Every structure is written in C-alpha cells, then in structure tokens.
Amino acid sequence: MQNSKRQWLALIAMCLGTFMGLLDVTVVNVALPTMATHFHETFTNLQWVLNIYTLVLAVSLLIMSKMGDMYGRKKIFLASIVIFVVASAVNGMAPNLLILNIGRAVQAIGGAGMNSLAMALVASNFAGKKRGLALGILGSVIGMSTASGPLIGGYLVEQFGWSSIFYINVPVGIITVLLTIVYVQETPSYGANDRIDFAGMILSAATLFSLIYGLIQKEAHTNWQWTNLHVAGWLIAAVILFIAFIVAERKVKAPMVDLTMFKSGHFIGTIIVALALGVAIYSFNAFLTVLMQNYIGYSAFATGLRQLTISIWSLILGPVTGILGARYSKRKMIGFSLFLGGIGFLLFMNAMTVHLSFSRMWPAMILMGITNGMVNPLLNTAGMEGVNPKEMGMASGLINVFRQIGTTIGVVGLGLVQDHRYASFLASHMDKIAGMPAAAGSAIKQALVDAGPFAGHGIAFSARMTKMPFAHGLQNVVLGAYSNSMRGITITSAIVLVIAGAAALILMRDQNQAAKQDI
C-alpha cells in the first residue's frame, strides 16, 4: 500500500479523470447555439453531439470495466485518459459535424474507462476508514461533475468559444496521466490468462445500445407512440439480446459479468438506488436548465451559477459522508437521504407557479443537493462492500451503467410526463383566452404542442405574438401549462426517490452484514 501522501495524490488523479469524463455528458449543452452558428447546422442535427456521447459511454462502461479487471485497472485507466484527451483535441479542431460526432464517440470510450475504473482503483488503493473517505470524495466529484456542466461550459463558451470546452481537457488530461503514472498503484491482472468473453462483450454492448438508442428515438420524436417500429423495435431487440446475454454468460467458464453478483439483495439495492439517482436527480438537471434559461431568462453562466445551490453540496458533503459512513448505518443514511430528496421535489412542485422565480426554488434545490451529496458517495462505498477484489471493476461499472441508464430513462420518461401535462393544460385552457378567435386558438395550440414545452415561451413571447390583442392571455396560459408540466415532473421524481429509499432500507445491508454474504 502506498504511503499517505502518495495515496491522496493518486486520488486527485482518479477524481480528475472522473470529473472530465462525466462533465462532458452535460458541458456541451450550453455550447449548442454557438455550434449551430459555426457549423450552419440545425439543433436537430446537433443533438447527436450529445446523444452519441451518452450512447457510446453506456455501451463501453462494462467492457472497459472488464478489461481493467483482466489486464490491470491502472493500465486501462491510463489508456482511457489518452484516448479521451486525443479525441478532445480532435473535437476542438473539428472542421465539420461528422468529424465532431466521430470524435465524441471515441471520446466516450475514454470517458467510460475513466468513470468505470476510478471507483475500483480507489477501492484497491485505499483500505479501512481511508477507503470510505476516499470513495466519499470521489462520490462528491461524481455529483459535482454532471451538475457543474452548465456553469463551466457557460463560462468557457462565453469567454473563449465552443472549442474551449474540448481543449480544456488536454492540459487537465496530461496532468492526470502524469499523476496516475507516478502515484496510482496498479491492481493485479485478474484472469489475464483467461479467454476473453467476446460473446458477453458483444451481447452486453448490443443490449445497452438497443435500449439507449430506442429511448433516444422516443425522446427525439415525442409524437411517436411506443408501438412505433423505430422505438418498439429497438426496445424489443434489447430484451432479446439481454436474454441471449444471460444464456451466454451462464455457459462461459470466465464470463464477462459474474451473474452471482445479482443474488445479493445488497447489490440489487445498490443498483436500484443508482438507477433512481439517474432518473430523478441527474435527468432533472436538463429540465431545470431549460426552466432557468428559456422561462426565467438567465444566461447559461447565470443558470450554472444558480445550480450551484444543488451541486455545491456534493463538494461539501462528500468527505463528510466517508467519516459518517464509517460510524453509522450507510443503509439508513442512503434511505432517509432519498426521502429528503423526495420532500425537496415536493417543495419544488409547490414553487411551480405562473410567476417562476429562483427565490421560490432554492429551498427545494438545497434539499435535492443534500440528497445527491449524501447518497452518491455512500453508494460508491456501499457498492464495493462484500465484492470480491477481482470483481470490483465490474461492480463499479454496473453502478455507473445503471446510473447512466437511469439518466436516459429519466430524460425520456419525465419528458413524456411533461409533454402530456403540457398538452392537457393547453387543451383545457386555450379556448378560454379572451379575444382569441377559435381558428387562431386551434392553430396556435397545435403549434405549441408540436414545438413542445421547451419552446413554448419563445413562441408566446415572440415579437409577432406580443402584438396580438390576446397576447397577455396566451402568455399566461403557456406559463401555466409549463408550470403544470413541471409539477408532473417533480411529483414523479419524488415518487421515484421514495421508492428507492424504501428499497435501500429493505434490501441493502450494513458492512457487518454484507461481509457475511458472498457476492
């Protein structure tokens, strides 16, 4: 085991890698308007700059985890950083959208390796109470990275242009490589002599690709039904491929994923919590960003600054959770923190009125931030408890996969809830607007439904619409529809967190119990 100073410098390397990999999930959002102008592309085409990273990241997480377990986590972590940095440089210089999309896909492979192996490297480089503290700090970085995307991205784009969000990864990546080489301790190459489970890798990647791609299709085409072949076809394929994956893994001597891990109620509880964090907390960031920018009118940087009300708690509570987790029940702290987050969403629901303002939202955002700041670090520590050392990389990868899948499911699922409530409100209120002709009301309502909740404010408050005699009534209806849709999102998120909190209390075990269970 390395001495104390070397350990903490190693932790800095792993935190930097994790931060870069997860930051790039959200940092691009605020650069899209600038990119659209630069590349002369529509927002629809640019959406794949976001989606390709999410898709490839999810597909690659388990594969990179397994490669790290087999050949040494430090080696694969280093290779991932190099891939990420080179791809980032290519993205910054991309002459067209095709090159940028390819670069983002390659970048996601590196991001997957950094994210999936950092947790396992921390677990193997630290022991005892230090491990809990280190995993707590890493958890705080995970919580901060995704939430701080709008703040960091907004500042970089406003000051240095869109390419700076990629170029910044180069110097940070070089520092991370040097720190990793010098200070991170390599882990044994578990199963290096075993045959690679190519069938498991291909089937797991195909399953995750089909699932995520099907959800992305639904997200991009909200008017499509779930039965649409372009949606249902991919989701059915995911189910079939998943069954094939399970069958294949049962027959392989050295499987990619040891399915006996899922016999543990503790581990099942862990991944349910990871899934819930993605569905309720991380996906909500996208809706919150739109609310602040499109409906309240903050700039990208001002939006990110106010979202620190949520993300700052990860930085504050991460190290604290490591200390608390060594003394008290992680299971109970996770469960009751999730309940606290549910209360936060209910408060947020109450703040959703026609007159939206940050002053009404910040108390709820604090509770959400405390939930994320408490649960994420504790989840990392709890997820590693009782796991065989040779499976730590895969356990870390699975937690990250379920967190990522949860985020995608949340964006799509909460988006559907929002669309339904938005359209329902418009349908029941548009005909009550004073002075609006019936024909005009029908046309405007259809335009608002087709454009969706994100674009409603821009339509209602456009220069042309504000000249209409019924403009004030229309604007109030649109704001009411949006507030109604946001209340649907928040109540759904609250329910998800309460269910996850109950699952944590029922399924998860504390260390002295988990140690008795073979995973």
TrEMBL record:
It is a multi-pass membrane protein. Keywords: Cell membrane, Membrane, Transmembrane, Transmembrane helix, Transport. Residues 10-512 form the Major facilitator superfamily (MFS) profile domain. One of its GO terms (molecular function) is transmembrane transporter activity. It is found in: Cell membrane. The chain crosses the membrane at residues 7-28, 48-64, 76-99, 105-126, 133-153, 165-184, 196-216, 228-247, 267-288, 308-326, 338-358, 489-508. InterPro entries: EmrB-like, MFS, MFS_dom, MFS_trans_sf. It comes from the Bacteria. The keyword Membrane applies. GO terms for cellular component: plasma membrane. Pfam families: MFS_1 (PF07690). PANTHER family: MAJOR FACILITATOR SUPERFAMILY MULTIDRUG TRANSPORTER MFSC (PTHR42718). NCBIfam families: efflux_EmrB. Belongs to the major facilitator superfamily. EmrB family. This is ChaT1 protein.
